[in-house]
Amino acid sequence: MSDLSGRSVAVVGGGFGGLSAACYLADAGADVRLLEKNDQLGGRASRLERDGFKFDMGPSWYLMPDVFERFFAHFDHEPSDYYDLERLDPHYRIFFKDGDQIDVRGDRAEMRELFESYEAGAGEQFENYLDTSQTHYETAMEKFVYEDRSRLRDWVDPEVMKAAPIGLQLTGTMQDYVDDYFDNPKLKQIMQYSLVFLGGAPKNTPALYNIMSHVDFNLGVYYPDGGLGAVVDGVVELGDELGVTYETGKEVTTITKSRENFIVEIDEGEQTYKPESVVVNADYAHAEQELLPEHEQQYDEDYWEKRTYAPSAYLLYMGVEGDVDPLEHHTLVLPEDWDGHFEQIFDDPAWPDEPAYYICVPSKTDDSVAPEGHSNLFVLVPIAPGLADGDGLRDQYREKILDDIADNTGVDLHDRIVVEEEFSVSDFVDRYNATEGTALGLAHTLRQTALLRPNNRSSAVDGLYFTGSFTTPGIGVPMCLISGQHTAEALIEDDATVLQ
User: Fold this and answer.
1) pLDDT tens across 395-424, in order?
2) Cys-Cys crosslink for 17: which of 53, 65, 346, 480, Cβ 3.0 to 4.6 Å?
3) In sequence order, what are the residues at sequence separation of 6 or more whose Cβ sits closer than 8 angstroms to the Cβ of residue 136?
């Protein structure tokens, strides 16, 4: 990277995109000050600690270890310098609501046999699917993810043309793609469940995201000792070593350009900074509409109203007495037909009648997250963004979910809960300024992928940049780490151009 010595940069928001950008910019010599609204760094990867229980409140899956290795390697480090990893086996358990149960493991031969047991010929199709998924993953990461192609001109490139078969996958859906391989609905669900992490549904997510099966089956699922919060701590520590200044409890309320510098106001002008450049890791739509004056906004209100936001979530964090067998570290509970749940997220918003949901039990792997003799778990139900979630609705849904867990996994939690906390749509709005309470950002739909996502460069204001899950490459902790690099490189490239 180029030399930014002496250049002052404010990073607004301390999620993974902002933390990553701060590291890259500081490494390039910039004087970086990161301003975070909340008292913790990590954005949605925040933590809740109560009575000896330690909960990851946001992301809890450590996927794509190659991305983390690449990130730390840029700074001559490796993940193990900051946290330890344990590979999970099984990767996760699935309870189907017809009483069926399977474990998804990293043993490819075992999984081939499992698929064959559900559908004649599906074992070979599973192998073919994974081989293609691996090829697509390696090509996509090299040509479309690690290379920032957020502008149309970035696609007019011979190297991109060579990768055209991958690019063409942007025009089909995951539903059609998986249908070409499997008939059994349960096998389809196994190959599509990860779309929840991308904020989409099988019918509106590009087929390119078949790459997630390579991530799942081949690269493996890991747990960082101490949870995802330990990864936040690692990136923060790295930034500290590089000279990043962190300030928490600092809510940015105004960003505007003034001659050669920006004016960044904290808490309605109680404190003001004047950096030369600004990187925004806050919710993109919120920043555009609430923090910037109208003449410095790229997109109007109509643009943001027409976007498809990733789901919000109903989350129930619980510390419970005793163990919670037969749940695994990661457990999915899926209805026989999950189309109805997706419809109630994207088409006809409502609290799901027959929910698909995820249960995380880190105490299965990590004794430090719960007192002796207790279990730590949370339940996440994807729900439509923008739903009303008053106490009455939450109370009703809490009972529904606890009953559903008991009915479908055999684990009755009702009378064993000693610590409990809920988090849902309005909490995402209040805590993260999340548009419509989205838990993830901008969904990866056919019209919101690659260069169709909002740019990491402001087209309205020189020196203003964006990073995180609204920009390329998209949703998820690994993608946000990469987004931070893209944004830092854009700033460095523009700075070098100005100096020429």
Assistant:
1) 999 999 999 999 999 999 999 999 999 999
2) 480
3) 166, 169, 208, 210, 211, 214
pLDDT digits (tens, 9 = 90+) for 225-250: 999 999 999 999 999 999 999 999 99
Reported as type and span, the H/E element at residue 196 is helix 195-198
Angstrom distances, CA of residue 313 to CA of 58, 143, 169: 10, 32, 29
pTM, two decimal places? 0.94
Distance of alpha carbon 280 from the chain centroid? 17
Give the tokens for residue 358: 């995820």
Report CA-CA distances (Å) from 334 to 14, 191, 220. 33, 13, 21
Task: Pull the structure tokens for residue 490.
Answer: 């854009």
Which residues are registered as beta bridge partners of 360?
A: 330, 378
Q: Is 487 helix (H, G, I), strand (E, B) or coil?
A: helix
Question: What is the rounded distance in angstroms from the CA atom of residue 296 to the CA atom of residue 298?
Answer: 7
The amino acid present at 483, given as its one-letter code, is S
Residues 404, 406, 408, 409, CA torsion sign: positive
- Mean pLDDT of the region 180-187: 96
Report the phi/psi class of residue 199: left, alpha or beta, with left for phi > 0 and alpha for psi in -120 to 50. left
Is 156 a residue whose pLDDT tops 80? no
In this structure, what DSSP letter does residue 256 have?
E
Contact between 288 and 298 (Cβ < 8 Å): yes
Q: Provide CB contacts within 8 A for 403, sequence distance 6+.
A: none
Ramachandran class of 155: left when φ > 0, alpha when ψ lies in -120 to 50, beta otherwise: alpha
Region 372-378: what's the mean pLDDT?
98
What separation in angstroms does the CA of 460 have from each of 254, 255, 264, 336, 463?
A: 16, 13, 17, 48, 10
Tell me the residue length of the chain: 500
Please choose, from the candidates 293, 111, 140, the residue with its C-alpha nearest in 3D space to the C-alpha of residue 207. Answer: 140
